[in-house]
């Protein structure tokens, strides 16, 4: 009987530790509340509809035929991006998107660009092992 009581106390302590640590972790996540405009959200749908991720990456994930586009908005001007999307090149297909779809895509790129950098060379590793961008 005494043995069972001991087990019970251990189980309760582990459960309490688990719950308090989970609460601590989830209440201090470094996630910002980004506002995503309707235009940008539509851009995300265009991105998915034409499967741009088949050749491009966001945050380093995706296909590797084309470049990572996480920060394309910060690196290139909008005319450059627009002309790539509408005309393509000899290795990127021309999607003949409408002006509206292109503007929405660019708005999506703007939002993604604001969420951080995908280039690991710009990351700083902090003493506790996390990454600061
Ligand atoms: C079949 C593969 C493929 C698909 C699908 C594709 N791309 Fe590309 N994309 C490429 C390649 C390859 C390049 C580099 C082309 C070059 O430099 O000539 C590129 C370049 C770009 C660039 C210019 C990037 C830079 O910094 O120079 C943009 C912007 C872009 N793509 C947007 C898109 C969007 C938006 C879509 C979806 C509508 C898309 N791509 C779908 C292959 C693709």
List descriptors.
single chain, 133 residues, mainly alpha, Cytochrome Bc1 Complex, Chain D, domain 2, two-stranded antiparallel ribbon, 5 helices, elongated, binds heme C
Task: Report on the architecture of this protein.
- This protein is mainly alpha-helical and 133 residues long.
- The chain has a domain at 38-116: Cytochrome c-like domain (Cytochrome Bc1 Complex, Chain D, domain 2, Orthogonal Bundle), CATH 1.10.760.
- Helix content is 51%, strand content 6%.
- It has 5 helices and 4 strands.
- The protein has helices at residues 2-27, 38-49, 72-75, 78-87, 99-114; strands at residues 57-58, 61-62, 124-125, 131-132.
- A two-stranded antiparallel ribbon has the order 1-2. Strands 3-4 form a two-stranded antiparallel ribbon.
- The model has no long low-confidence stretch (mean pLDDT 91).
- Heme C (HEC) binds next to α4.
Which second-level CATH architecture of the domain at 38-116 applies?
A: Orthogonal Bundle
Give the CATH class of the domain at 38-116.
Mainly Alpha
Mean pLDDT: 91
The coarse overall form would be: elongated
Assembly level = single chain
Summed up, the helix count is 5
């Amino acid at each position: 009987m005494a043995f069972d009581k001991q087990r019970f106390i251990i189980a309760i302590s582990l459960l309490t530790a688990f719950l308090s640590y989970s609460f601590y972790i989830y209440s201090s996540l470094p996630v910002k509340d980004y506002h995503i405009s309707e235009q940008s959200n539509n851009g995300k749908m265009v991105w998915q509809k034409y499967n741009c991720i088949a050749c491009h990456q966001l945050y380093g994930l995706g296909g590797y035929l084309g470049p990572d586009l996480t920060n394309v908005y910060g690196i290139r001007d909008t005319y450059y991006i627009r002309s790539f999307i509408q005309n393509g090149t000899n290795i990127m297909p021309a999607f003949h998107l409408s002006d509206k779809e292109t503007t929405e895509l660019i708005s999506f790129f703007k939002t993604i660009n604001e969420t951080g950098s995908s280039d690991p060379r710009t990351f700083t590793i902090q003493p506790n092992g996390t990454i600061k961008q």
